[in-house]
Amino acid sequence: MAFNQFMHPRNIYRQKPVYEQLAREYSDFANHVYRDEKGKVHIDYGDIGALRSLTQTLLKKDFHLNVQIPEQRLVPTLPMRLNYILWIEDLLEHCRLCYQIKAIDIGTGSCAIFPLLATTLNPEWRFIATEIDPINLDYANKNVQNNNLNNRITIYDNHNIDTIFKHLVQNCHFTFVMTNPPFFDDTFNDSFEDIATKPNGHKTSFHWRKMNSASTDEAICDGGELAFIKRIMDESFQTKKSIDLYTVMIGRKKTFLELKCLLKDMIENKTLASFAHTELCQGNTKRWALAWTFDDRYQLANSPKIIHLKSKPLIHYLNPNMKCCDYDIQSIGNFIENLLLNDLHIEQFQMIKLNKRIEFDIKSNEANWKNQRRKRREKLLQESMKTMHIDTDVFIATGKRPLDNDQNNGDGQNLKKFSQSNELCKVNLTYLLHCSLIIKRDKQDIVIKMETKEMSQNKSATYELLQYFKNKLT
Ligand SMILES: C[S@@+](CC[C@H](N)C(=O)[O-])C[C@H]1O[C@@H](n2cnc3c(N)ncnc32)[C@H](O)[C@@H]1O
Question: Residues that bind S-adenosyl-L-methionine, according to the entry (predicted)?
Fold first, then answer.
């Protein structure tokens, strides 16, 4: 379950469900579990019946949703679908889109999983959910009715209609569009592979098509997901601000990178206001999502995202002749704690003192470690002006001194931007910086080891903070 730690922070399935307990409570699910030689309960991830039962059972247990999924139709994996919905919630929060939320789900499947989950989590939201497959349409309608959601979710038969969604938007405004599009090209040459963990714990790579019960309509469209999403993009250029946010879930990294480049070009050509992207992680599977908008009130570029950062630990050997504090783990830990609190004003950190090491977990949305040299220069300048009896108020009030250059102005703006995003990130739980810092011995030496953690928006903040500590720990 390599990627579970990168699931959305509000995803309840970061904690894997306990199959033994589920089997005790739900008899249908109990038919699909087995015990290994140590007595631990598992399901066979290669058995579509078991996966179907798992999704139905979790929908019932965790969301009180009663759902039927027919054989020969796609079985949605719940944690991944939930990741996508939670990211959309973040985007709406970021854009302050809170009222009268009306959405379109393109290709809702038999389960109508996105509208059912999203309206259960957000009692104000309403959906039009489209489908072309007759069996899916039938089941989606029943699933909506059986859960008494027909006043909030409308299933729409898109069959025989050439456009994907733009016909729904005439004289209507929607808050967002979402879709998990059909993924395969009709040439059947797509090698869309997932990595699965066998019950014995070994990893195996398998061809997804052999593993899922999806019908041809569900899984295949001309040109695969890339062509389908390009059609959505084309239509979005006709509907523009009639929909606040356009979002898509993507199955292949290659498609994601190509679409991201397209969106970047559109931003450069000023045909689009902004766009955002994120990773959606579950178990051993990773998907991607993109969002774009034509409305420049919504600054998607600095919206919350989850990126799986493969980071190498940064290790720094401390100088035994350091003057700032004693060369022992306790003193260095206290010195760093003091810097975090009183110099960097970071309040979101934990310090754990263990027998032979001290560990910190640090989160921040303020980059106060930046521009330390400039800050020192400013302080010195102010002090020297005071002794020269020059009125420093003018400079301090405007933030401009004769020595200031564009770089300095830019940095000031950056700091402001970070503190603004602080407000937003409280809800979304992503940070400008999230890292661990460990102080420990390596033979005779003391080292600090820093590593970027999952809620960090990028890796550079960890490098910068290490640089800051290096300058202080002399
Ligand atoms: C990959 S499935 C996704 C199903 C569901 N949303 C989920 O995430 O499990 C894609 C769905 O899109 C439907 N579909 C394909 N082309 C469509 C179109 N032009 N309009 C609406 N739905 C379409 C398929 O029938 C299929 O159910």
Answer: 81, 107, 131, 180
Closest CA to 22 of 48, 47, 53: 53
* Residue 105 contacts residue 115 (beta carbons within 8 Å): yes
Ligand 1 mean position, distance from CA 133 (Å): 8
DSSP secondary structure letter of residue 135: H
Please spell the DSSP secondary structure of 298-342, one letter per residue.
S-GGGS--------PPEEEEPPTT-SSS-SSHHHHHHHHHHIIII
Q: Give, for ligand 1, the residue of 48, 72, 106 to mutate: max count of ligand atoms closer than 8 Å to Cβ.
A: 106
Q: Is 180 annotated as a binding residue?
A: yes
Residue 219's pLDDT is 63
Contact 435, 461 (CB under 8 A): yes
For residue 88, the 8-state DSSP code is H
One-letter amino acid for residue 192 of the chain:
F
pTM listed for this prediction: 0.69
How many Å apart are CA 474 and CA 467, to the nearest integer? 12
Task: Please name every residue paired with 448 in a beta bridge, in sequence order, or none if there are none.
Answer: 316, 439
Burial, 261: exposed, middle or buried (Cβ in 10 Å; 0-12, 13-18, 19+)?
A: exposed
Distances (CA, A) of 141 to 65, 360, 454: 14, 51, 39
Q: Is 359 annotated among the ligand-binding residues?
A: no
Which ligand 1 atom is at minimum distance from the Cα of 161?
Answer: 19
Q: What are phi and psi for residue 259, nearest 5 degrees?
A: -70, -35
Cα 379 to averaged position of ligand 1 atoms, centre (Å) = 61
CA atoms within 13 A on the CB side of 194: 21
Cβ–Cβ under 8 Å, residues 76 and 111: yes
Residue nearest (by alpha carbon) to ligand 1 atom 27:
109
Q: Is 81 annotated as a binding residue?
A: yes
The two tokens of residue 318 are 């401390």
Count of other CB atoms within 10 angstroms of residue 279: 21
Measured in Å, residue 228 CA sits from the centre of ligand 1 at 10
**210-259 pLDDT per residue, tens:** 445 666 666 667 778 999 999 999 999 999 999 999 999 999 999 999 99
Q: Is 115's C-beta closer than 6 angstroms to any atom of ligand 1?
A: no
As a whole number, mean pLDDT of residues 107-113 equals 97
Q: Which of 193, 195, 254 lies closest to 229 in space, CA to CA?
A: 254
* C-alpha 24 to ligand 1 mean position (Å): 34
CA distance 220 to 223: 9
Q: What are phi and psi of 216, to 5 degrees?
A: -60, -45
Interface predicted TM-score of the whole assembly (ipTM), two decimals: 0.99
Ligand 1 in reach of 378 Cβ (< 6 A): no
